[in-house]
Each structure stands twice: as C-alpha cells, then as structure tokens.
Specification:
This protein has 170 residues and is α+β, with helices and mostly antiparallel strands. The chain is 29% helix and 24% strand. It has one helix and six strands. A hairpin with a 6-residue loop joins strand 1 and strand 2. The longest helix is centred in the N-terminal third of the chain and has 50 residues.
C-alpha cells in the first residue's frame, strides 16, 4: 500500500491482481482436493461395513454346531455348508445391512439389491483322525454386481476386504 502525502491512498492495481492470483491459486488447490477426500471417505465407509460383515460371518461359522456322528453342517445364519474334509469354495451375496440377497452359490439377482459379494474358501482337514483346524478365507468384494456369477471367483471389483480364520471343528 502506498503511503504518501496525497489524499488518495489504497492498493495499487498490481497489488490487487497479485492478491487475487494467490487467492485463486489457493482455492483451486483446495477444490481439487475435495474429490480425493470424498473418494477416501467412501472407501473407508465400504471397508468398515465389510469388516463388520466379515466379523459376522466368522461368528456365524464359529457357532456352527459339531454333530456326532460327524456330518456336514450348515452355519445358523448364512447357511454356509462346512465340509468334513477337503476344500470347497462358496459364494454369497449380501445387502449392506448384512442380510442375504439370494442363496448360497447362486448368481446375484439385481432385484434383491446385493451390495457385497462374499467368497468363502474353506479347507477342512483331509485326515479326519487328526485334530486339525478348518481354515476359512473370507474375501468380501464390492460392488456385488461387478461379478454376478456365484460359481466363479471374483475378478472385477472396486474394493475388497479379506480375513482368514481357523475353526476348531474337532
């Protein structure tokens, strides 16, 4: 700002232009970060929901009763069959609230509005005489309709969450 003896004091045109240029540069940078923040927030929300669904699936699998004599049993909530021995893969489509959108190993039905696809890789001990844990790898991917066929492993998705657990089925 010029200071002098004359009556007209204020900012010069160069000072105003420079201040506006700096303000515009800062605003453009801030506005450019908004989509990054929104995408990060969306991904975080999806991960949080998927983690909750995975915890529910693990709890459901752990509460599956062990029957004597040994037989294949289904989990109580999601009806996931747990094999006595060997490896199997199952698919399940879930809504955002965790409710099932279709049957086990069925293709996704768009009218049921599935949000998540759950693929379970279950490996039971091959030697049933030894006390070995059954391992379960749970892969949750979204959106579910990216890979709507239940019989194949997911290949196209925008996000995923994975957890591995061991079940004592002895």
């Amino acid at each position: 700002m010029k200071q002098g003896n004359d009556r007209h004091s204020g900012f010069s045109l160069v000072e105003v232009a420079l201040a506006l240029g700096i303000a515009v540069f800062a605003l453009v940078a801030i506005i450019g970060l908004i989509p990054v923040g929104l995408n990060s927030n969306q991904a975080s929300s999806e991960q949080t929901v998927a983690a909750g669904l995975a915890a529910g699936l693990v709890a459901d699998l752990r509460t599956t009763p062990v029957v004597v004599p040994a037989a294949e049993e289904n989990s109580p909530r999601y009806q996931v069959p747990l094999p006595l021995s060997g490896s199997v893969t199952h698919s399940l489509f879930l809504k955002e609230d965790g409710s099932v959108a279709g049957g086990i190993d069925a293709n996704a039905d768009p009218s049921l509005d599935p949000r998540y696809r759950v693929t379970l890789f279950i490996t039971a001990p091959t030697d049933t005489t030894q006390k070995t844990a059954t391992t379960v790898r749970i892969l949750i991917t979204w959106p579910a309709m990216a890979d709507p066929k239940g019989a194949v492993a997911p290949a196209k998705y925008s996000g995923s969450y994975e957890v591995i657990t061991a079940l004592n089925r002895n």
